[in-house]
Amino acid sequence: MYSRQKWFTYFNPLSSPISVVLGDNHSILATGVGRVIVHMCVNGEWKHQMLQNVLYVPGLHSNLLSIDCAAEVTFKLLLCHVYNHNGELICKEQKRGTAYIIDIEVPRPETAHITNIKVFPSEGDEMPMQVLATHPNVSKASLEMWHRQLGHLSHNTVDQMLCKGMVTGMEFTDKPLPTGPCEPCLKGKQTCTDISKVANERSEIVLGCIFSDLCEQPTCSHHRYNYFATFIDDKLRNV
């Protein structure tokens, strides 16, 4: 459970808020759910992790991680070891009082710099630092639009990219699957049919089927030509 919405890389408001009961039997509301990308410290090394199904609780004073969300948790003396589904140690928690404290950081969001350059510098010159605005770069579009913007990448791959936290700064407005084939995908991925070397049928009329080929000759002709074309009638077999 997190208390700051800006930490979420993907956020979906809840249609019906969820009541969260705290240790003192006081209830507060969770108004959203999403994913948070964090850095966890393990043995002095910060590792990139992604927390899924994180509840957004605006009234929460401290961020909480439930051990039920981890694949495996072990307790030894005053330490708590948390493992992911691959069996990798993702964090160590030190017991302080009645709670275990995690060394965790939320990375700063990516930003985009918008500049106004009237004269573009020549090769080797430095880019002038004329920054007019800086803002978080988050784009929202439908799954179909992301499919097209990413070079017609498969819909499942685009969905997995966001679900697994492989990209930041992109969100889905909706995810309906296409009802029909994507025409640019069909045209871009179609292959040529192999031409059979043996014909099963012969043309029954003259000029009904013509075979043509372009050939290159090693020696130029009298008029300095290097190529010649052949046309063979399938009925008469004449050139």
What do these coordinates show?
By secondary structure, the chain is mainly beta. It folds into three domains: 5-105, no CATH class; 136-189, no CATH class; 196-239, no CATH class. It is 10% helix and 40% strand. The strands form five sheets. Strands 1, 2, 3 and 8 form a four-stranded antiparallel sheet that branches. The protein has a four-stranded antiparallel sheet with strand order 4-5-6-7, with no helix packed on it. Strand 6 and strand 7 form a beta hairpin. It is elongated, with a radius of gyration of 32 Å. The protein starts with 9 loop residues before the first strand and ends in a 6-residue tail after the last strand.
Which labels suit this protein?
14 strands; about 40% strand; four-stranded antiparallel sheet; mainly beta; 3 domains; 3 helices; about 240 residues
Using DSSP, what is the number of strands? 14
Q: What is the rounded distance between the termini?
A: 81 Å
Structural class: mainly beta
Structural domains: how many? 3
The main β sheet shows up as: 4 strands, antiparallel
Range of strand content: 35-45%
Average pLDDT, rounded to a whole number, is 78
Cα radius of gyration in angstroms: 32 Å
Number of helices: 3
**Helix fraction bin:** under 10%
Please tell me what the overall shape is. Answer: elongated
Q: In terms of quaternary structure, what is this?
A: single chain
The poorly predicted ranges are: 112-117, 129-136
Q: Spell out the helices and strands N to C.
A: EEEEEEEEEEEHHEHEE
